[in-house]
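Justification of resources, computational component.

The compute hours requested in this renewal are based largely on the per-chain cost of generating structure records like the one below. Each record pairs the submitted sequence with a full structure-token output. That output is archived, and it is also reused by downstream analysis tasks.
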Amino acid sequence: MLSDPKLSVVTFTLAFVTVTWAIREPHPVVRPLVTRYVGYANDEVTLAVHRGLPSRHVTLVISLAGPVRMAGRSLQALVGGLHTRAVLIRQDSAQEGIQLELDPLGVRTLFGVTAAELSGEVADLADFGLGWLPERLRELPWRERFALLDDVLATRAVEPVVPPPELGAAWRRLRGAGGQVRVTDLAEEVGWSRRHLGERFRTELGLTPKQAARVLRFERAGSLLRQGRTDLAALAAECGFYDQAHLTNEWRALAGCTPGTWIAEELPFLQDQETEVARS
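The structure output for this chain reads:
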């Protein structure tokens, strides 16, 4: 079994609901493919609806309670590809599970398909030979759950499928700039034509460079909102939007609501999560 990186587990009460968060980075062997593990649990047995926002990650959700309903499917464990519209995630039982943030360029190594094949879709984890995993994880405490994930994913990382270095460099550059790079400049930096760069992005990620940049700018704005940055005009300028109206319109398109609505619906809960984990 691989050695165990630092694990943060916190439990707190929010609006009479007991909430647990367990967060840990994957083992270094797995980290090029998976950014982090986020475990969650709460004892509220009511219909929960959450907005799954567009992000830089392919998302793996493993429910350790009832099934998760997303994009018209009801699954115990699902893989969601990159997307440019919010997806409503529903669960009508007490919630417990683990969410994994996957690098889209590592999806081929983990599952034998490209992120493009999952783009805008939801796949059953059982389709990739891991249908047994939710039941096994359910039997374990948090530390052993993450250790099992490390072991399972490390086995699949032994023979990585490496994308062209130009594509990897372009994706890292775009992420590092929060989407604020002109596609023409990005193509020149990696030595490809703009057309070829677009074709390779679509083939591997399922998004064009322009779409990926749009998602990254949106994601950056969401990150700043989580930090309490509510001056939308300043936030828009920092994240590469033309103005506050452009920011608001993009949020309507990608999140299905305005920034203000999202703050009212979900931010208090997310802030409590991050505050408690930071204290641990």
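Confidence is low (pLDDT under 50) at residues 271-280. The longest strand covers residues 34-42.
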